[in-house]
């Protein structure tokens, strides 16, 4: 008797395309952030192939967590709701750190996320 085929559920987070990781690394360097990549993560009952953490270089506090779902780039700030974007470039356009906003405008602007 043949065994039934069991299919593994699709992970909540998929791996990024290499160009997305390269643009994210360049963006992190430009904004003086530290980027980490965690592989094969289980969190909150979900599985993720890759999760990217963005930190201030001088702190252990994670400002944003980024992963790729089947249909979007997902950004979860340390505090607040997660946001979904069609592309990595679109996500990064919305994640300008507050210290860089002050530099460019001369005044403190609230973070978008």
| N to C succession of SSEs | HEEEEEHH
- The structural domain count equals 1
How are strands sequenced across the largest beta sheet? 1-2-3-4-5
Q: What structural category characterises the helix and strand content?
A: alpha+beta
Low-confidence stretches: 102-113
Largest sheet: 5 strands, antiparallel
Net shape: elongated
Strands, total number: 5
Give the amount of beta strand, in percent: 25-35%
Average of pLDDT = 83
Commentary on this structure:
It contains 3 helices and 5 strands. The chain is elongated. The protein is of the alpha+beta class and 113 residues long. The protein has helices at residues 18-30, 88-93, 98-105, and strands spanning 33-43, 46-56, 62-68, 73-77, 83-85. The termini are far apart. Strands 1-2-3-4-5 form a 5-stranded antiparallel sheet.
Could you name the key traits of this structure?
113 residues; 3 helices; 24% helix; elongated; single chain
List strands and helices in order, with pairings.
Blueprint: H1 18-30, E1 33-43, E2 46-56, E3 62-68, E4 73-77, E5 83-85, H2 88-93, H3 98-105
Question: In summary, what is this structure?
Answer:
By secondary structure, the chain is α+β, with helices and mostly antiparallel strands.
């Amino acid at each position: 008797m043949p065994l039934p085929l069991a299919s593994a559920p699709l992970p909540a987070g998929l791996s990024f395309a290499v160009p997305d990781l390269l643009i994210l690394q360049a963006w992190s360097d430009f904004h003086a952030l530290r980027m980490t990549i965690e592989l094969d993560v289980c969190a909150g009952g979900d599985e993720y192939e890759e999760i990217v953490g963005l930190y201030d270089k001088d702190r252990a506090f994670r400002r944003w967590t980024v992963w790729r779902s089947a249909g979007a780039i997902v950004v979860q700030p340390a505090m607040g709701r997660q946001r979904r974007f069609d592309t990595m470039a679109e996500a990064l356009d919305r994640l300008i750190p507050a210290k860089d906003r002050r530099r460019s405008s001369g005044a403190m602007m609230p973070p978008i996320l």
